[in-house]
């Protein structure tokens, strides 16, 4: 009962969506507001960032109306993580004053069973998304295996390009080294180390990318004493108008 006094009356359906959609994450007085900081840290342009924030708000809405919570994509999760860093804005202005409930972040416990659970949860989230917003989740923001970034996003050298440079350097030195007169044992050692580094770099397996997929499923639940039991019912129409709770 004590927690309940912290919350304003929780809205549902279209009114709740309107409140979430209208919520401003950017502080107009900040030199580096939320969206610009997010764009800079993730390497996104402003258009992509604003759309990612919009999809994050849709995800939060699904968290509130779905009895079992919802599962974000990798892109949405990055926005969520960034918002969680703004503790007062997230927990007070957003959760308490706007949503009327707490939305908690629950990382995956790992393992095959948890992976299957996450996949089922993700499928359920996408189905709820279609029913509530009248369209498929946009692939650029929700399909983790096929995340497509804007062309203006600066991308580091790919592993293939690095391997090509490594081989070019290796063969250049291989051609150059026999022509060196009076090579000392130190030079041979250095050359051997360079060869080892080149082979290791070229044959190493690519690491896990932090931007294209999300290993740990991030769920959300509604804390406090307010209910999360509303649902979309039979349909919500198209567009961003949200859906009525049952």
Describe the fold and architecture.
With 246 residues, this protein is mostly helical. The chain has helices spanning 13-22, 34-42, 46-65, 74-85, 87-99, 112-133, 139-142, 159-176, 185-203, and strands spanning 102-106, 219-223. It has a domain at 13-145. 52% of the residues lie in helices and 4% in strands. Strands 1-2 form a two-stranded antiparallel ribbon. Helix 3 (46-65) packs across helix 4. It starts with 12 loop residues before the first helix and ends in a 23-residue tail after the last strand. The model is unreliable at 1-10, 146-159 and 205-246 (pLDDT under 50).
Compact summary:
The chain has helices at residues 13-22, 34-42, 46-65, 74-85, 87-99, 112-133, 139-142, 159-176, 185-203, and strands at 102-106, 219-223. The chain is mostly helical. It is elongated, with a radius of gyration of 25 Å.
Record field, number of beta strands = 2
The secondary structure category is mainly alpha
- Give the radius of gyration: 25 Å
> Biggest sheet: strands side by side, in what order?
1-2
Order of helices and strands: HHHHHEHHHHE
> How much of the polypeptide forms β-strand, as a percent range?
under 5%
What is the average of the pLDDT values?
72
Q: What global shape is seen?
A: elongated
Low-confidence stretches: 1-10, 146-159, 205-246
N- and C-termini, Cα separation:
24 Å
The helicity comes to: 40-55%
Largest sheet: 2 strands, antiparallel
Number of helical regions: 9
Descriptive labels:
single chain; 246 residues; mainly alpha; two-stranded antiparallel sheet; 9 helices; disordered N terminus
